[in-house]
Design a protein that fits this description.
heterodimer; A: about 350 residues; Cytochrome Bc1 Complex, Chain D, domain 2; two-stranded antiparallel sheet; globular; disordered N terminus; B: about 425 residues; Immunoglobulin-like; five-stranded mixed sheet; five-stranded antiparallel sheet; 9 helices
Chain lengths: ~350, ~425
Amino acid sequence: MLKFLKATAAVALISVAGHAAADPLGLGRTATPAEVAAWDIDIRPDGAGLPEGSGDVLTGEEVFVEKCAVCHGDFAEGVDRWPVLAGGQDTLASDDPVKTVGSYWPYLSTVWDYVNRAMPFGNAQSLTADEVYGITAYLLYSNDLVDDEFELSHENFAEVRLPNEDNFFMDDREQSPVFTNRDACMSNCKTDVKITMRARVLDVTPEGEGDDSAEAPAAEAVEVAAATTEASTEPEQPVLNAELVTAGEKVFKKCKACHQVGDKAKNRVGPVLNGIVDASLGAVDGFKYSKALRAKADEGHVWDDASLAAFLEKPKAWMKGTKMSFAGLKKEQDRLAVIEFLKSHSQ
Amino acid sequence: MTDNPTRKGANRRQFLTAGLAAGGAAATASVAHAAGDPAILEIKPWAQELGEGVDARPYGTPSEFEKHVVRRNVPWLTADPVSSVNFTPLHDLDGIITPNGLCFERHHAGIAIVDPAEYRLMINGLVDRPLVFTLEDLKRFPRVNKVHFLECAANSGMEWRGAQLNGCQFTHGMIHNVMYTGVMLRDILAEAGVKTTGKWVLPEGADASAMTRSIPMEKALDDCMVAFKMNGEALYPEQGYPVRLVVPGWEGNMWVKWLRRIEVGDMPWHHREETSKYTDLLGDGKARRFTWEMDAKSVITNPSPQAPISHGPGPTVLTGVAWSGRGTIPRVDVTLDGGANWLQARMDGPSLDKSMHRFYFEFNWDGKPLLLQSRAHDSTGYIQPTKDALRAVRGENSIYHNNGIQTWYVNEQGVAENVEVS
């Protein structure tokens, strides 16, 4: 593979030179420095690309608990099937390898780059540089790689090394016996062939997918259900402001990472929101609510326009201890619109 | 069941169920009617009444009898459908081209909806002139048409520890094969002028995962394309509309969708999708990185667990697909007895570089159980290994690049099952 890379460089030079000699078509326009700065956000292991800034473990923990813990857990241990980010040391050669930032990732720059470009899930590129430094520092701490007084900055970034860096190597498949075998036996290759394992024993194939027999009835049932709903709810449907519903649908994009509405809606990070307006708090089947929400529910609160508006404006102020890691909708118009949109999904 | 009235207008689903129940007797059922086949003797509505006019379906869709031909997912695989994968129904397809609506999907932050009027592609980094192109600009470069397979590196990844999912859609369906129209990446790079220090490129997506992968310059200048059409029409949103990167023969994760930027650099970036993910953990705890090429692989698509033999003993068509990230597939071998004896299958259809190939094997089934396998040979001489041979060198923790030989057990009724054999 190293050989290949050296060859890469040589060929690259020749080809580029060849193309440079060809007349450019003059297509495109020069990118402005501001445009390049807006999109060129990538970070490399040597720290190239890092903006100035810093964040310590404790500040990072606060940001992490507020913005990341709903999926990754307060201690980066992972919730449900969301990624585990801490622990897993000495498990890579076991039957159950746990690949975390501390146990597997080779470079710290990958953490900074990925958190900055893609997190929080559903609200990407919303963190400040200092918040990303803080979260990165907290992840080092939660993997026992630094103490709780550690502060990460653009200045000390390149000094931090992750423990698993040296356990990665370039693709060498071409040296393996699997690759070099050129013998395809055609007859009497085995004397005894026995079945050693069957998929049916595990039984993890999605229901009704093995053949098509289960599907059509389900589809019919959905159609019937949809038709019934339409017929029975139409007369009772409150008159909605269509413009506001449309505006609310756009605002709802901010909620979509965690909440679903519509016929196929399922509980995800947050509960299904069909019929949420005027429903009792904590009433969605199968959703694990926070203690804070259950306490409010016990007080008899209902999700009417006023409580929804108050919750959506500042979730954590209205319900201290809520799991919902959402900063809130500052504009009243956005709150009214999204509530109107939720009303359009009455069931 | 010979005179069963529900057979009238029976769809494929009912046919399959009936066929299985009757142990493959369904093939002769319809002619047992005394005077002959009702499908012939009765005047059917479609033979008498007028159908829909030309504009009833401005954009055509498959027959209502083909509703079962859809992508499917495995919900327990991932935490959330927004960052997940579904699977191409290989068992319902033939030839080598995957229809656009059936190409498997893999998103990391859902389907980005990008307005083509606001689409921009930026080239920056180690270039003479950082450039910005509109979609219209890209279409002014000389265009090329190429058919290539795209396979997710994790295709068959659920099978590392043994037979798990019952159906080639689930075991092998993270692949599609499409004709792309686009422009060569080297032409775009030449427009910006790559500096002599430029050894790598970093394509980046415009979606909320801002997908990035490091690609060596040799590959970028060799056969990578910036594509805007698939099978003749605009890319589908879930395949990166309006523009995606095509990286022939290399793992699907590198084919960045909603492509917004390509940076030129002097070393790889080691981003998340080439460190935490898409690296191959071996049994000793060490991990391979930059395992780009997809090794030669094949699978029998019919019969298979979702497509049993429904006609009983007699003339039977076995078919499947094969592909290699290193070239073409001149040959596929097939065994009916679990690998004791092999015969060459018949290749049919176009044989194109880094494209899916179709093979057939016609035989007279005696109604006895079968242990079916296929074995691909690629144009470099590489031979698809058994799963056990792969595990011997890779362990069972690899996830990616499982190209081992697949076995289907077919019983006397023609029902097929995913198994492994000694």
